[in-house]
Specification:
- The complex is a heterodimer.
- By secondary structure, chain A is mainly alpha-helical.
- Chain A is about 70% helix and about 0% strand.
- Chain A has helices spanning about 10-15, 25-35, 40-70, 85-105, 115-140, 165-200, 200-210, 220-250, 265-290, 300-330, 335-345, 350-360, 370, 375-400, 415-440, 445-460.
- Chain A is globular, with a radius of gyration of 24 Å.
- Chain B is of the alpha+beta class.
- A 4-stranded antiparallel β-sheet of chain B has the order 2-3-1-4.
- In chain B, α3 packs antiparallel against α4.
- Classes of the chains: A mainly alpha, B alpha+beta.
- At the A-B interface, α2, α6, α8 and α16 of A face β2, α2, α3 and α4 of B.
């Protein structure tokens, strides 16, 4: 007879601790708040100077674009969508991991999300901010961008075309940006109150007091708060799936071979989560080391994220294969041509970069040794990001550059403005992070504490553990 | 009650969620009804222990959802068929099929607004000041302390008696706070 009694060690192996070193509640508050309170480190200014300069570069490129015209980009005929839409889809996709962690994993009661959700949600917001630039400026006359919205106005004198997926996209992306910002801020309110309560100066107390809206953490507050959080998670879950679905409609609803496929929505969503998790790994590996929160963002968190990367990467690879199969099986010669051209035409280099980064590289995560190796996962996450950028580029450029008539064949080459603008968006992304990590708690403190207490309670209910042996989390 | 008009209540300061929960249950058993707990994170089971009703936020959000959906239907129908009817690629002027993405997005958007602003409204936030902030150890309630306040508006409230009662429940610190 097998021994069916619960062995505490075995339990720990099945669900490794999410907070290591058994810190007290106060130590958690301390670890998470301290970086907003200490004197600004010299390295912070250096980081801000570098990322700020790159952001200024973005600003000057956009000013040049707007004052001159879209012609400064490499977009041409037939490749009417170039890096603008590639980068838009790239950035919006990255945001999806944040919402997945904050909403979907919340609904599935995945406790490991608590240490990383704040950071990932911030990433969502900043990535959406970078993404939002492109549709805004690629319209050519961004001062007319409000025409995208159904605002009654005399100078347009007509209404938007709701039959167009591009308009659906306007609604999807602006809703996504707004709801992500609300979700993030709601999560921040109790933690802003912590910073307020720890404030040493009157100014800090006033600023964080106003930001926390007078939060007191009363039982009534928490009751409505938890309900609101649950509802927001429930709303964000279909929302995040809808956003990349609608982004994929921009392509799938057209009749361009290579775009006109029903696999696009699930394939885009999987790709978005894949790239987003890779970006979380890239950033989190750095942040947990810089801010010394390795005991709160543990190897368990990183390993779980790497498993998600493995799963979604495999889905993406499967989608690539399906696309090729359908191109052959449909018997549509234009579809076949597009896919053969994709893998063997002038953009073969981009296609095979994509396949090696997205399909082959995540497979290394089958090995526990590799998915728990920090330098390895860091490098691999960058490969995934590169691969996912190439995916969007391949989809856009290869489907467009050889039109039905060979007389309208072309090739897309980015200009220096394309390249510097894209480079500049990374500057903006990092600058926003530099500010975020300086002034706001990067870990959802109250959630981590609640999770610690809950875990402690669950241990008590496990049968056959020597009850009462594990010390409950004490306040000190 | 007149002598209590400048008093908000008695604060009892506990060191763990379990002692707080026990205290809440004991206070309810004793007949106190006007009480509030202040904790660094939500304590499960405290609403039941305090006899609080479930949050009505869900109904507010439902109103938001209905508003969002209706707005999206009317917006697309009215602009497409009345205000600016224009046949594009032979598609109908209005149909639920192509209207669905916008209906969905606006439903979610207005539900989210309702959830956030409804939550703030139900909680009476934003608010610049509250008597609990007069308690000398209030900062602990966002860190690692668990406060129970029996409010002066309670019929059974008597500053000294209530204080003694809370002391008997294992509170580590007691204080009468001004309103």
């Amino acid at each position: 007879m097998a021994d069916l009694a619960f062995d505490p060690k075995a339990v720990e192996q099945l669900s490794p601790p999410l907070v290591t070193g058994q810190p007290s509640l106060h130590e958690v508050t301390e670890a998470v708040s301290i970086h907003t309170e200490i004197e600004t480190h010299r390295n912070w200014y250096i980081a801000l100077a570098i990322s700020g300069s790159i952001t200024l570069l973005l600003g000057s490129m956009l000013a040049y674009l707007v004052s001159t015209g879209i012609g400064v980009w490499g977009n041409n005929n037939p490749v009417g969508w170039g890096w603008d839409i590639t980068n838009f889809v790239f950035w919006i996709g990255i945001g999806h991991a944040g919402t997945l962690i904050s909403a979907i994993l919340f609904l599935f009661r995945q406790k490991w999300r608590t240490s990383i959700n704040r950071f990932a949600e911030a990433m969502t917001l900043f990535a959406v901010a970078c993404a939002g630039i492109y549709p805004l400026v690629h319209v050519g006359r961004p001062w007319r961008a409000y025409w995208l919205f159904p605002i009654p106005n005399a100078d347009l004198a007509m209404w938007q075309n709701f039959r167009s997926p591009l308009l659906w996209d306007v609604f999807a992306v602006s809703t996504y940006a707004t709801v992500s910002a609300l979700f993030w801020y709601v999560g921040l309110i109790p933690d802003l109150a912590i910073i307020r309560d720890r404030a040493k100066t009157q100014m800090r107390h006033t600023i964080y007091g106003l930001l926390s809206l007078g939060w007191r953490g009363s039982a009534t507050h928490w009751k409505n708060y938890e309900k609101a959080y649950m509802i927001l998670a429930g709303l964000s879950t279909p929302l995040v799936l809808s956003v990349h679905t609608i982004v994929s409609f921009d392509f799938a609803v057209s009749i361009i071979p290579g775009w006109h496929t029903t696999i696009f929505p699930p394939y885009f969503v999987a790709g978005a989560i894949f790239s987003g998790f890779a970006m979380v790994i890239t950033l989190m590996v750095i942040a947990r080391w810089v801010f010394k929160v390795e005991h709160l963002v543990t190897m368990t968190h990183l390993e779980n994220m790497n498993k998600v990367i493995l799963a979604t990467g495999t889905i993406v690879g499967y989608a690539y294969a399906t696309e090729f199969f359908i191109a052959w099986y449909s018997g549509n010669e234009y579809e076949r041509f597009t896919f053969i051209n994709r893998a063997m035409g002038p953009y073969a280099w981009a296609y095979w970069s994509m396949v090696s980064c997205n399909v082959i590289s995540p497979q290394f995560f089958w090995f526990k040794k590799l998915r728990t190796n920090i330098p390895f996962m860091f490098v691999l996450s960058i490969f995934v990001n590169i691969g996912m950028w190439f995916e969007r580029f391949v989809i856009i450029a290869t489907s467009l550059h050889r039109d039905y008539l060979p007389s309208s064949w072309g090739y897309f080459r980015p200009t220096i403005v394309d390249i510097l603008t894209f480079f500049g968006t990374f500057g903006l992304f990092i600058t926003l992070f530099v500010f975020f990590t300086r002034f706001l708690p990067i870990i959802a403190v109250s959630e981590v504490k609640g999770m610690m207490i809950q875990t402690e309670h669950e241990k008590h209910y496990l049968p056959a553990t020597t009850s009462g042996s594990s010390e409950p989390v004490k306040a000190h | 009650m007149a002598e209590h008009s400048s008093i908000h209540g008695v604060v009892a300061d506990f060191d763990s969620p379990d002692t707080l929960l026990d205290a809440v249950r004991a206070a309810r058993a004793k007949g106190y009804t006007k009480m509030e707990a202040y904790t660094p994170f939500p304590i499960h089971g405290i609403d039941e222990a305090m006899g609080a009703k479930p949050s009505i936020l869900g109904y507010i959000v439902l109103c938001g959802s209905a508003t969002g959906f209706t707005t999206a239907v009317l917006l697309q129908w009215w602009t497409g068929t009345i205000a600016y009817p224009l046949v594009i690629s032979g598609k109908p002027l209005f149909a639920f099929e192509f209207g669905f993405p916008v209906m969905f997005e606006l439903t979610v958007l207005l539900s989210a607004f309702a959830a956030v602003f409804g939550m703030l409204g139900l909680n009476g936030l934003p608010r610049l000041s509250h008597p609990i902030f007069n308690y000398s150890g209030v900062a602990g309630s966002s860190d690692d302390r668990f406060l129970l306040v029996i409010e002066a508006s309670d019929k059974k409230f008597d500053a000294n008696e209530t204080k003694d009662f809370l002391a008997s429940l294992g509170a580590e610190k007691l204080e009468v706070v001004e309103a």
